[in-house]
Amino acid sequence: MLYLQLFWEFFKTGLFTIGGGLATLPFLYEMQAKTGWFTVNDIANMVAVSESTPGPMGVNMATFTGFTVAGIPGGIIAVVGLVCPSVIIIIIIAQILEKFKTNKYVQYAMYGLRAASAGMIAIAGLRVAQIAFLHWDLFKQNGQMAALFNVPAIIFGVVLFFVYKKTGKHPIWYIVAAAVVGIIMGL
């Protein structure tokens, strides 16, 4: 039953996620609240690990969740559930799209999907920023506004942003730097 639930949860995620790995985050937050398979902090860790490892981000997240919940078979089942809708849809669309690619309604639908994808990615980015830069639990405990902000993380994020804008180095260097600083400073 657990394997079927893993497959179904990631099948739904794969079916409705358009726009890449970060677009899976709203679904993962919903899955976390519904199943309790992982914590909100685990999602932030999934993003960090998935961004810094080879392969599609959504697949890495599905692998992590499936493995955490049900070992190696769970990881495989979660990934199959995630990619299955894409394979089915691609097969169907490939047959149909060639006939209708110049249809204005098909083109409008594609533009609409782009906007939906951008919105989902923006929401995911804001939720990751919230986890990284804010201490909601600490704020709820003592009610002090100063406890809400993770000042070292905010400063480091701003510095990293400006260094990236100025130098334009490959993102892997910033990922490595962030990991080292996070370990040293406990961010």
Can you summarize this structure?
With 187 residues, the protein is mostly helical. The protein has nine helices and no strands.
Structure commentary:
The protein has 187 residues and is mainly α. Helices cover 83% and strands 0% of the residues. It has 9 helices and no strands. It has helices spanning 2-16, 25-35, 40-52, 57-100, 104-133, 136-142, 145-148, 151-167, 171-185. Helix 1 (2-16) packs across helix 4, helix 3 (40-52) crosses helix 4 and helix 8 (151-167) packs antiparallel against helix 9. It is globular, with a radius of gyration of 19 Å. The mean pLDDT is 86.
Indicate the topology.
Elements: H1 2-16, H2 25-35, H3 40-52, H4 57-100, H5 104-133, H6 136-142, H7 145-148, H8 151-167, H9 171-185
Q: Give the overall silhouette.
A: globular
Mean pLDDT: 86
**Sheet of most strands:** none
Helix and strand pattern: HHHHHHHHH
How many distinct beta strands? 0
Ranges with pLDDT <50 over ≥5 residues? none
Helix amount: over 70%
Structural class: mainly alpha
Termini separation: 38 Å
